[in-house]
Design brief:
The structure is a homodimer.
Chain A: E1 5-6, E2 10-14, H1 21-31, E3 35-37, E4 41-42, E5 57-58, H2 61-69, E6 73-79, E7 82-87, H3 88-96, E8 100-104, H4 107-117, E9 121-127, H5 131-139, H6 146-160, E10 168-171, H7 175-190, E11 196-197, H8 199-206
Parallel strand pairs in A: 2-8, 2-9, 3-8, 4-5, 9-10
Antiparallel strand pairs in A: 1-11, 4-7, 6-7
Helix pairs in contact in A: 1-7, 5-6
């Protein structure tokens, strides 16, 4: 029997810090077994609640530099004093295994990724529901200093200004509703004609 | 408070006769209150189970000709000995009222519609699961003569050949699953950045 298959897709979720993106990524991974997370490498120090290989691959600036030189990144960028990058190999392996890959990256990373994999990239921008809520979420991270919070708010403004570069825009006013929208986007994009392989053969067999 | 709104969209479901499109259209209308059906006008005689104004507007060839001359159709086409067309006014009224509109039209109608409303058109092609199933569904319509069934099968082949012109392709191997996919496509397309209105103002207010 002839089956319609499809190429794997890369789903990018971007948002300013404090828009709930981390929660939404986690929910998506829990509810959809067909998608896996792309884990970034970073030179930023590990926070107490973070786990090596789950949240990030924590590497030295030297090691990061060698990865750049070796062409090991799909995209990389500097944010404040630290560098972040997406290792290419695990992404390619997941796609080859028929899985979709989820990226939690910023607008710079998205732009770089888009240049390389235009067709198979699906990008979603998540907005916080209001100014007050954004400020509240940034301030409730106890481990951050005032200076960090203030830099985050200004970075949030910068990040938010890039929403026009994304395929979809979602306001996270309710996490359940925002999650449902992301699931819908993933399901819809999986049915996109341009991503399907073998439709010609399937259609020919229907009317042979 | 600033709200993000969106333009209404036109969702086209096309398929060969016997792929379950009518059932899927009905299910979608039942489960989504934001979308209304575009009712076509036709010169074809009414079948016993059909209701004027729900299934079609049944008109004489003369009246159909006057509607064409009056520019009252968004699209129209001839199929076998009869004409089918989409009256423009109800569609425009529904879109203006913030509703989405569902179209059960063939590839010819879809092509015409696409030329007029490119951006706001979302097109889905529904394929039957197999040759055997397609033939079975075409043959179980008791009111159709053998000749009609045979003409339908050949028309099905012609219709199926147009799947590459659609945005999405769905195989209707399970009506619940196919319905869920159409719902996802509708939800995703409602979150498309290009369809949203007022995001700039919303984003500016977030970081004022």
């Amino acid at each position: 029997m002839i089956e319609i298959r499809r190429r794997g897709l890369m789903l990018v979720l971007s948002s300013p810090s404090g828009a709930g993106k981390t929660t939404l990524s986690r929910l998506l991974l829990e509810t959809d077994s067909g998608i896996v997370m792309s884990v970034s490498a970073t030179t930023r120090p590990k926070r107490p609640n973070e786990i090596e290989g789950r949240d990030y691959f924590f590497v030295t600036p030297d090691a990061f530099g060698r990865m750049i030189a070796g062409g090991e990144f799909l995209e990389y960028a500097g944010v404040f004093d630290f560098q972040y990058g997406t290792p290419k190999k695990p992404v390619m392996e997941a796609l080859a295994a028929g899985r979709d890959v989820l990226f939690d990256i910023d607008w710079q990373g998205t732009q770089q990724l888009k240049e390389r994999v235009r067709e198979d990239l699906v990008s979603v921008f998540i907005l916080p529901p209001s100014h007050a809520e954004l400020e509240r979420r940034l301030r409730t991270r106890a481990q951050d200093s005032d200076e960090v919070v203030s830099r985050r708010m200004s970075k949030a403004a910068d990040e938010i200004s890039h929403w026009p570069e994304y395929d979809y825009v979602i306001v996270n006013d309710d996490v359940g509703r925002a999650h449902a929208k992301i699931v819908s986007i993933l399901e819809a994009e999986r049915a996109r004609r341009a991503r399907l392989v073998g439709v010609s053969e399937f259609a020919a067999a229907l009317t042979r």
